[in-house]
Amino acid sequence: AVTFISSSQALKARGYERLVLQVGRGSLLPAADSCPHVRLEAFRYKDSIAEDIKQADLVISHAGAGSCLESLCAGKPLLVVVNDKLMDNHQLELARQLHMDSHLLYCTCSTLTETLRTMDLSVLQPFLPGQPKLFANFLDKALGV
Questions:
Q1: Could you tell me the CA-to-CA distances from 145 to 68, 123, 141 in Å, in that order?
Q2: Once rounded to an integer, what is the mean pLDDT over residues 41-58?
């Protein structure tokens, strides 16, 4: 909860006014009034979050390949939060590769707030949409295939 509050403060300091959360099966579904810094909307699942991504100024996501591809192809700045407790951490490998190619920024849960405070989105390069072969090559590089 402390990370959530400090991260929302960091978002507010950067000029973000609204935070939309997809929390899936998580044990916590934050109430709209639980975040005094930004306007909060939280939901478990939608058939598609494409419209949410389209309206976003920044996407914060886990580093799953599908989530990364959807956000990058929508042309949105992407910050992925890698679960550093996974054993075979393909998310970290994918995030590192896409970060090295300047397509996204990444952090861990413990560094999220500081990353939000200091991130420079101007360094990000567009990911060319409609090129699944390119993304497959990223996956191959990232996973060492």
A1: 19, 28, 6
A2: 93
pLDDT of residue 92: 84
What's at 142, amino acid-wise? Answer: A
User: What is residue 145's predicted lDDT score, i.e. its pLDDT?
Assistant: 62
Check residue 39 and give its pLDDT.
92
Strand ranges (E), the chain: 18-22, 39-43, 59-61, 78-82, 105-108
pLDDT band at 131, cuts 50/70/90? low
Burial 58-78 (b: 16+ CB within 10 A, else e): bbbbebebebbbbbbbbebbb
Question: Alpha-carbon distance 43 to 29, whole Å?
Answer: 7
